């Protein structure tokens, strides 16, 4: 089950890479009148389910209460994730700028204070689960995030998609 779980954890990252590097193809695949960010969000939620099932399949026995480090890591990590979504919305969170949407620049916390706050929040939440999930699977997921941070840091505005009219 280890290799399958590892693939499940890494499964979404080629999709994200494709969307980031080929936004016009994605907009065209989605078709006229369909929101590429919304479709990406729906597919991403399904992929997140696959990731969680993969982690669950390799998790050691679930014990409660969790260790003390769980609470601050998980709560602050989820706070960052929800705050980013609250400030950017679905389009801002799911590559709307790459798909030709105008996303307002946000300077409220955590932006301007934490670089890549959604990824930081996700990594914190994953680290919180170390008492239940073997380290190598958490590390794989974190490496996927590090890869996407690197990919997204190299954005060329000239490669953004043009919305279909």
From TrEMBL:
Annotated GO molecular function terms are: phosphatidyl-N-methylethanolamine N-methyltransferase activity; phosphatidylethanolamine N-methyltransferase activity
A single BP term in Gene Ontology: phosphatidylcholine biosynthetic process
Annotated S-adenosyl-L-methionine binding sites: 75-77, 155-156
Q: Which InterPro entries match?
A: PEMT/MFAP (IPR024960), Phopholipid_MeTrfase (IPR007318)
Keywords attached to this Swiss-Prot or TrEMBL record, sorted alphabetically, are: Endoplasmic reticulum, Lipid biosynthesis, Lipid metabolism, Membrane, Methyltransferase, Phospholipid biosynthesis, Phospholipid metabolism, S-adenosyl-L-methionine, Transferase, Transmembrane, Transmembrane helix
Q: Name the enzyme's class.
A: transferase
Q: In which pathway does it act?
A: Lipid metabolism; Phospholipid metabolism; phosphatidylcholine biosynthesis
Q: How does it sit in the membrane?
A: Multi-pass membrane protein
**Its GO CC terms?**
endoplasmic reticulum membrane
Q: Which reaction does it catalyse?
A: a 1,2-diacyl-sn-glycero-3-phospho-N-methylethanolamine + S-adenosyl-L-methionine = a 1,2-diacyl-sn-glycero-3-phospho-N,N-dimethylethanolamine + S-adenosyl-L-homocysteine + H(+); a 1,2-diacyl-sn-glycero-3-phospho-N,N-dimethylethanolamine + S-adenosyl-L-methionine = a 1,2-diacyl-sn-glycero-3-phosphocholine + S-adenosyl-L-homocysteine + H(+)
The portions of this protein that span the membrane are 46-64, 123-151
According to the UniProt topology, which residue ranges lie Cytoplasmic? 154-165
EC numbers on record: 2.1.1.71
Chain ranges on the Lumenal side, renumbered to this chain: 1-2
* Cellular location(s): Endoplasmic reticulum membrane
The text of the family note is: Belongs to the class VI-like SAM-binding methyltransferase superfamily. PEMT/PEM2 methyltransferase family.
As for what it does, the entry says: Catalyzes the second two steps of the methylation pathway of phosphatidylcholine biosynthesis, the SAM-dependent methylation of phosphatidylmonomethylethanolamine (PMME) to phosphatidyldimethylethanolamine (PDME) and of PDME to phosphatidylcholine (PC).
Protein name stated in the entry: Phosphatidyl-N-methylethanolamine N-methyltransferase
In its UniProt entry, the species of origin is given as: Papaver somniferum
